[in-house]
Every structure is written in C-alpha cells, then in structure tokens.
Amino acid sequence: MKLGFIGLGAMGAPMAGHLLDAGYELAVWARRPEATTALAARGAHVCATQAALAARCEVVITIVTSSADVEALAFGPEGLAEGFAPGAVHVDMSTIAPGMARDLAARYAERGIGWLDAPVSGGEQAARAAALAIMAGGEAAVLERVRPLLEILGKRIVHVGEAGAGQVAKACNQMIMVNAIQACAEAMHLARAHGVDLAAVRHALMGGSAASKVLELMGERMVAREFGAGIEARLHHKDFGLLLADACRLGVPLPVAAQTGQQLNALMAAGWGRDDTSSLLRVLEAEAPV
Amino acid sequence: MKLGFIGLGAMGAPMAGHLLDAGYELAVWARRPEATTALAARGAHVCATQAALAARCEVVITIVTSSADVEALAFGPEGLAEGFAPGAVHVDMSTIAPGMARDLAARYAERGIGWLDAPVSGGEQAARAAALAIMAGGEAAVLERVRPLLEILGKRIVHVGEAGAGQVAKACNQMIMVNAIQACAEAMHLARAHGVDLAAVRHALMGGSAASKVLELMGERMVAREFGAGIEARLHHKDFGLLLADACRLGVPLPVAAQTGQQLNALMAAGWGRDDTSSLLRVLEAEAPV
Asked: Are A81 and A144 found together in one domain?
C-alpha cells in the first residue's frame, strides 16, 4: 500500500518515521520543503503538490493545526481531492471541528473517496513511542482498511462512530485534560498558600481517587516549575476555541470548560502560548505582565 | 496497643473491622448505640462516652463528617481530651478544615497529647479493600508510632507536613477529583449532543492523556446512568464549602473550583445530595425540578 503523509511537525515527524520503519513506501509534501529533508534522507519521496502526492497514494495521512489547514489541504488549489483516484482514503489525524470533519467526509464521498477523522491523544512522547490513543470517526470498512497503519502508530484504536465522531471524542479528551491541568494548578496554588510541600501533596494524591495522567505528568512539571517543556498551550487554546464555539452552536452548557477557556485566554495574553499548558499555574499566580 | 474508634459509617465500619481482624483490642463509641452492634459482636468494647473511650486507649481514630463534629468529639462535654492520658494520640481521618486541624493539634499539645490529621482518599471501595490513600499532617514521630495501624487501612501513607497539611492535601484531592467529575460530565453532555456513543468516547479517552480514576469509575456510572451508587454528593458539597472558604480567607483564586462549587450547589438544590456525585451530569441536563 502506497502512503502519503502531510504534517511533519512534533507529532507527525515521528509518526511518519514509524511508517517508514515498518517498510511502507511513503510520499511526503510540506509547505516548507526543508521539513521533508530528514524523511527524504530515509527514503521518503518528496512531492511538489498535495495533488501530486494524492495521485500516487492509496492512503494519505494528515496531521496539521487547524480546520482551515485541513480544508485547504483537501479541497484548496492543488489539493488532495484533485489527485485522489476513487477508492483512495484521507485519514486526518489533526484536531479540527467535528462539523468540518463531517463536511469533508461528505464532499469526498461524492467523489468516491474515503474519509476517516482519527485524532490522537498522548502528545509527542506517545507519538515517538508509537503509543497514541486514536479516536476514529467514519465508516467501519474504511477504518478496517487502514487499521494496520494505525496500529503502527498507536496502542488503542477506537471506532467512536460516523465521520466527525473521532473529533467529538477528541474535544471531550481536550476538555477533560485541560480542565484537569487547571484543577491541578488550583490545587498546587492552594497548597503553596498553606505552606505545604507540593511534591508531597502530588505524591499522596496519586494513590487515591484524584489520580490521573495529568496529575502524574503536568503535576510533576508544576512542582518542578518546568514550564518550557511539553505541549504548547496555544494548541489547547485553539482546541478550547473550537469546543466552546461548538457548545454555543449546540446550546450545551459547559460551565467549567468555559472558565478554563478564560484561564487559557489569560495565559495567551501573558505571552506563554508556546510554553507548556502547566503555565496555567502561573496565570493563578498573577505573574503576568499587565 | 489499645485502640479506640469513633465514626462507624460507610468508611469507618470496614476500617474498624480491619483493625479487629489484625488482632487489636478495640473500643468503640457511637452517638447512636446501634451503630456499634456489629463490631461489639466481633469483640469490640462499647464505651459510654468519648472520655471513657479515651481513658482506656493509647490511640483513638475518628472518621466523622464535619469540623464541628471533630471538635465536639475532642473538646466537647465528656470529650476525648477529658479522658486521654498524656502521651495518647488522636488520629483524625475525617475531612475537616486545615485550620481546625491546626487548632486541635495545638490544644492537644498543651496537654501532652499527640495529634495526626490523616484524611483518606479512595472511597468505600478502598476502605473495604484496605487500599486507602492516607495523607498525614502532624509530627513525624507521631506518624511513625501509628504507622503500623495506618498500614492496616491503606496502601499509600504520605507524611505531607505539619498538623493541618494532611487536610490541605485532602482539599487538593477533593478539588481535583470533583472538578474531574464535572469535566467528565461536560464531556459526556457534549458527546451526547453530537449523537456520539458515550461508552466509545470513554473507552477511547482511557488510552490517552485524559485518563484518570474519575473517568474510569465515574465515567462508567455516567454512561450507565447509575446515579444512585458511590459517594454521596452532599459530602463533596461540604468539602467544597470548606475549601472555597479557605481560599477566600487566604486570597487564593480558584476559578474552576468556584464554578464546580456552583454546580454542586445546583445539585443540592435539585435534591440529589444523597446520590452519587456523577449526578453533576444531571445538573447540566437541567432535569432538576424548578
């Protein structure tokens, strides 16, 4: 099976590398050609346009930043849709709006092209370790066709439902995760005001009902005040923009997510968008330049 | 070592049972004498007053509901302080205000009596399985003296700091846990509005960065709509009252905890205080009687 890959960032680069390692013939395209250098040296074929990439591939995987990016890759000038033969599949692993995923699936279906929204969770660490959680939305038959590829990238591949359902699950994931980071920050801030050792609090809590991946990883960063590493907060800010707009459209009350969204706005205003989301602790501390 | 135990509720009854099973001589007292029947049948000695209990024990463990309850047990009429010999220890495993824990420790210290605040996490299930997380505040020497007892009740025993520090850790625990329940409820509510299968969403998320004890246990209850079981929401409501008052006194901003506190208020107003805290999902659904 000939594969294409677009989106060679912190997540995509190791993912594309795993597919090469597994022996797949891989074509790549990037807006910035220098992003393809490392993979080209390992045997990936570099294409001049997205359409050219699609023309030589049965399956194209994309993992980029925004809904608009994915739409442009797919249906913009020289987009994937111009190159795909009927029966080809676009697997989008970006985090985008569920409605956009549904729209793209419908437009592809008119041309006999398959679609899967398959956003991921686990961050760069899981991308490098091929241990991502993958939340798939689309037709079951399409998922089964590409499942061997996804199994190279992730450990838990769940078919959540029809097109867009993967993105709904990802929105739920981001909401739960970033709210947990905010709650962890509030807990640390309260403990410090009491003069209590934060490392001891985190250690104690990991044994009980408050235990979570976030407390384990982000809690540790807060204790160590290592705000530079990890996931860039601007990406979570983008995700909250999407999910709160979605909630508004649907009339769904999300009171705590809305509040966390405001804290992310304050984080961005303070200039910490490229730092780790554990910087939500710094927002509470009001160290921000005013 | 002669032990006393007060607070034979859903948590305390199995805990006292574990101490009996371990071969300790156990005395009990309860406001409602019928609460002692089962333990008395297993060999526990029933005392007429808290003071009488304290007079025959080197260590007394209490696990009751409120700060006022603990203060009354300790320094009210016929309280523990009247009975304790110097060198005795009061281990309070209730969830109370950190300031009350510090006050009681200081008052006991004047009489040569030891104190440990040692609140727990893990719920009834962990109490029955002797797998509680225990967060201890007080002098290290006092903790070491009672550690063999705590090891009969729990799996992770952490010395967080001085008197009150155990309660600070517990406040952090409750804040993180109940915020996670609220975030889980919001995620489920959003997924349902999208017509996406909640069980699949929960399963997908358990493999990634949003994984937590809360998503595992309370998420399952929300999917199954089993709101009757588990931890009574009124207890979390009480805990949030404490921690938000504490934050107000200290000038610590807790924006998301404050919002979750409002959702707990709505839950109480709807009459679900004796149901599980996963009822926060029902608050979002606005099924409450108005």
From this structure: yes
